[in-house]
Glycosyltransferase (Parapontixanthobacter aurantiacus), 378 residues
Amino acid sequence: MRILFALSGFHRYDRGAEVALLSVASELARTGDEVTVCGSGTERSDTPYTFRHLPAIGREKFEKFPALPGFRNETQWEDATFAARLAMSGEAGRYDATVTCGFPYANMALRRGRKAGAKHIFVTQNGDWPAFSDKSEYRLFSCDGLVCTNPSYYARNKKRWPAALVPNGIDLTRFGPDAAAGRAMRERLGLPADKPIVLMVSAFIETKRVLDGMRAIAELDNAVLVVAGDGPLRGKGDALAAEILPDRYHRVSLPATGMPDLYRAADAFLHMSINESFGNVFLEAWASGLPVVAEDSVLTRWILGDKQYLCDTTKRDELVATLRNSLSSGARAGKSGIERFTWPVIAAQYRSFIEQVIAGSARPDGAAGPFANAADAA
């Protein structure tokens, strides 16, 4: 198959959506498909796919721009500048299938390829609102196949679109326990060796609730909070930390290559988002052997089961107690069961669904994928 993956952040950012889709693209290319990736970053060595650079204005430039329908946040502003180039390039019509999670503009640009016979697949990495909402710009959404990254999205959309339930994955050759590497990372970042480290890997945006996590950590006696992330609320986070977490807060920015050792440097992992589309960080923390403290939801139980530290994160007392328990137990999370989330397994499910979409055999409430039974149980 000839497949195009297009997203403004490719090769420019290493956030959840970019990591997930590039991992799928890489696996498909390694196993014989002709894969092209379009993004606004620069070419990287040793990628198994072909990369095409299309310029875009970075989302950081748009953080203070107004929020409007179609331009609701800095990511959509960036998407618009990328999609204009994508549409003019004519790339979409050269492939059997196109794939994106960018909405509205990248999705609209790729739909142009349908005139040349390309089938278009949308992935709900950033939410499924485009697939079911009839408000504002969401009325413009369409696709030939919908990849749903969690069971709630699949249940909501499977009768409307040809859909498959396919989660994100994990590279177990990169993420795994390594005490020596963790100690070295602590030393590199200037983190104390004698205090527990709680790690958050989250963007500084409202939905990630990083500031709420900081307030909970402040109630622990000596825990140090490390946040790997950036975003419009970084200034508020730094100011709050100076007030309630003096000498117990570090905001760091590391390349993707440094993230496995950052997980290894921590004693527990905290994620505060309530409405995740998936959450690659859950798998990364799990693979690294960290106890995971997160919202008790259908999604987290579907991914993690009931062996982690799940609670109602909106209740401060319950969250603080759960954090304290995760740090005091001394238990490291086992890796049993995580193999079903490895990228070769996930990419094979993408290939099967894309083949069905190209062949025209994918129908609403038809192609589900092997994770659908687990979703029904959840």
User: Anything to note?
Assistant: Residues 4 and 98 are 5 Å apart (CA to CA). The chain has 14 helices and 13 strands. Residues 179-328 form a domain with the Rossmann fold fold (CATH 3.40.50.2000). The mean pLDDT is 93.
